[in-house]
Design a protein that fits this description.
This protein is an all-beta fold and 737 residues long. The chain is built from two helices and 83 strands.
């Protein structure tokens, strides 16, 4: 009806269209002068439409159900403007009967037969127009030839055919519309339909429907089979068809039993299917075994079906390839023959190299013909041999030409009776790239009495040194193998090591105790490992990255040793308390040491300090941070931690047992004097005269005085003279007459 072209004309300026102002009215709905003062002023609205959509006889827009849509626009007249504004999208659209005509932003759709009023409102103004909707045809009818098709076919058999046409009737005029209608089936497993041609697929019930512009017609079908059953005739063993890979095809037949009686061979007409075509295939009853497995074979014909289980076996147990797992060849190498043999179910093996089917996963890398593998370009491919249900694959690695080879290790260590992996071999290619050629190498040993090589392993036979030589494409490299005395135990110089974050220190020194009792420094050959990422290990050093406690494991031959590594922040100063110690022989004192970090924080490190003492005859170390006096004298106690040092003076004095005066009592005349001496008796047993260093006092200086052991009588009477030394005291009674 030209709606699309009309719509384009409408959007381009409505050329050839005309406008009618219909039933425009002002609806205030709370409209205020102040609200509209700042906005444009609308003075009226009108509906515009395409002239071809308007029916003058009914004074209404005309449309058909499920036909092209009718598009109208709403234009508003603006005060002060000669042009009109398209407000179609902003307006509020309504229909008086949504069962007849629907409207959405000016787009009208016919839904049913009748008349409706379409209205549009914008800023208080409303315009409306009448619209009619009707069906294109009064009815549509399925036709079987020149007769109307029945509404129900209670029974129709598979194999029969139906071909309907469809006509639309209007005012007693019929029009063929089969190709324009929409055809559907409620069950495509029973019947399908294409422009009236119905194909019966299976038994059951379905409804075929034709729809056109709101009208429809349908027929309900009940589809049955002309047969009661179908039999799949096969040589079964215990209900299963047994086949073998490599044998001739097996021809099966299918026999159908009609409902009217008798049997019919339908082998050629039936549909044959295999549930797994990788196990077997079937074409018109001819079965071909493909590979070992179990599947189901089905035959179907006009609604009847029959199935059997099929087992496909192989006459062989295994296939073996030589070489078995990998084939390593060089680009310049001649083709290499791979042999294939099979073991049958009677446990007899025989070669099938030339009878097997050979394939390569990548013929750009390697090709294979009758087991003969030819290198084509560097890379890896998989070569597979298949024969009557059994197969085997090997990886083929093709290496490029090289210019030199190097070994990952140039020295190996072992002891009698153990074996180890040969070192990785890396080759330099023509373009300078590196490639692992370990599996391509041929190794020789300078003295097989000391060591041997087999595969990728070496085995130590006797104590000594041998040279292992690797040969690849004519290039050689040598590795020295040293066979040692069997180790019994590894000993680390220290079980606990503290290191500062960021500082590089030497790895721990390690000594091995061998089977013969001899000790040997193996620091340079120990391999150190750790599971922590807070420690960086190099050849001979280590460096801590973050504060933590980790385990460091050293390995030498088949022995290991563990060292606890404490990674700490840096200490910038150590302070000892006390800084000087005085002790009697046999007495001990614990030294407290405080460490200071860069940020001023402190930590007690007394137990972590490495202590040393200058004269062990005076004092010795005790515990983790203690000193014990041995004999009178003085010495220096030195503590070191994180390259910081602290020193403590240690003085050892003998313990005072008692004081002894030279006399116990004294009588003097006034003016007379008398010298007395004082001895200190120590636990060492050697008395010492301390007269001059003792403190002397008189209880009655008016009777007698005392100075440095000299007593002077003053007047008649009695007094006590007291001597004090090192916490002890002694007295003498003096009488003056």
């Amino acid at each position: 009806m030209g709606k699309e072209s009309s719509w384009k004309m409408l959007r381009a300026g409505f050329k050839g269209a005309f406008a009618i102002l219909l039933a425009a009215s002002l609806v205030l709905n709370g409209w205020t002068g102040s609200a509209g003062a700042a906005e444009e002023t609308v003075t009226g609205v009108e509906i515009n439409y395409d002239e071809s959509d308007y029916d003058n006889s009914s004074s209404a827009l005309k449309m058909y159900v499920e036909d092209d849509k009718v598009i109208v626009n709403l234009f508003a007249s603006i005060s002060g403007s000669s042009s009109k504004k398209d407000v179609t999208a902003e307006a509020s659209w309504k229909t008086s009967s949504s069962s007849v005509v629907k409207v959405d932003k000016g787009i009208l759709t016919g839904v049913g037969s009748g008349t409706a009023t379409i209205s549009a409102t914008y800023k208080g103004y409303t315009a409306s127009i009448k619209a009619t909707s009707q069906y294109v045809y009064d009815e549509i009818v399925l036709m079987d030839g020149d007769k109307e098709a029945p509404a129900v076919i209670s029974e129709i058999q598979l194999g029969e055919s139906l071909d309907y046409t469809l006509v639309g009737r209007k005012n007693n005029v019929s029009t063929s519309i089969a190709s324009e209608a929409v055809w559907t089936t409620t069950s495509s497993s029973v019947a399908t339909v294409d422009e009236g041609k119905i194909t019966l697929v299976g038994t059951g019930t379905t409804t075929i429907t034709a729809k056109y512009k709101g009208k429809s017609d349908s027929v309900k079908l009940t589809v049955t089979s002309p047969y009661k059953s179908i039999d799949l005739v096969a040589p079964l063993e215990n209900g299963v068809l047994e086949l073998e890979v490599g044998t001739d095809d097996t021809a099966l037949t299918a026999t159908a039993s009609p409902k009217l009686g008798g049997t019919i061979d339908v082998t050629q007409q039936a549909t044959w299917t295999s549930a797994n075509t990788k196990v077997l295939t079937v074409v018109k009853g001819v079965v071909t075994p493909v590979a070992p497995g179990k599947t189901k074979l089905t035959v179907s014909h006009l609604g009847v079906t029959s199935s059997i289980d099929v087992v496909v076996r192989t006459p062989y147990q295994f296939m073996k390839l030589t070489p078995e797992k990998e084939l390593h060849i060089q680009m310049q190498q001649s083709p290499v023959q791979v042999q294939a043999e099979v073991l049958n179910n009677s446990n007899i093996s025989y070669p099938v190299t030339t009878m097997a089917e050979w394939t390569s996963s990548d013929i750009l890398i390697a090709t294979v013909v009758d087991g003969k593998v030819t290198p084509r370009s560097p890379g890896t491919a998989k070569v597979t041999a298949s024969y009557k249900g059994v197969s085997r694959s090997i990886d083929v690695v093709v290496y490029p030409s090289i210019t030199k080879i190097t070994a990952e290790k140039t020295t190996l260590d072992g002891f009698k009776g153990i074996e180890g992996d040969l070192p990785k071999l890396t080759a330099t290619t023509f373009n300078g790239s590196m490639v692992d050629v370990s599996k391509l190498a041929v190794w020789t040993v300078s003295d097989t009495n000391i060591a041997t090589v087999e595969g990728n392993k070496w085995t130590a036979k006797a104590i000594g040194e041998v040279t292992l030589t690797a040969n690849v494409q004519g290039y050689q490299t040598e590795v020295k193998l040293i066979v040692h005395v069997k180790p019994l135990k590894l000993l680390a110089e220290s079980k606990d090591v503290s290191i500062v974050i960021g500082k590089t220190v030497s790895l721990p020194k390690v000594t091995v105790i061998n089977e013969d009792g001899e000790e040997e420094d193996v620091t340079s050959t120990v391999v150190w490992t750790t599971k922590s990422d807070n420690l960086v290990i190099k050849d001979t050093t280590m460096r801590g990255l973050e504060a933590s406690s980790i385990a460091l494991t050293g390995t030498y031959l088949n022995k290991t040793v563990s060292v606890r590594i404490k990674i700490e922040e840096e200490i910038v100063k150590l302070v000892a308390e006390p800084s000087q110690v005085e002790l009697n022989p046999g007495r001990s004192k614990t030294i407290k040491v405080t460490g200071y970090y860069k940020d001023g924080k402190t930590i007690s490190v007394g137990s972590k300090v490495n202590w040393s003492i200058a004269q062990t005859s005076v004092a010795t170390l005790t515990g983790s941070s203690g000193v014990k006096a041995v004999a009178p004298g003085s010495t220096i106690l030195k503590g070191t931690y994180q390259e910081q040092t602290v020193q403590i003076t240690v003085v050892v004095k003998p313990k005072l047992k008692s004081l002894q005066l030279s006399i116990k009592s004294l009588q003097l005349s006034p003016g007379a004097s008398q010298n007395i001496s004082l001895q200190a008796v120590y636990t060492t047993g050697n008395p010492v005269v301390v007269t001059d260093t003792a403190t002397w006092t008189s209880s009655k200086p008016g009777v007698a005085t005392i100075k440095d052991g000299k007593i002077t009588a003053v007047a008649k009477g009695s007094t006590s003279i007291k001597a004090t030394f090192d916490g002890k005291s002694v007295t003498i009674r003096v009488t003056v007459k």
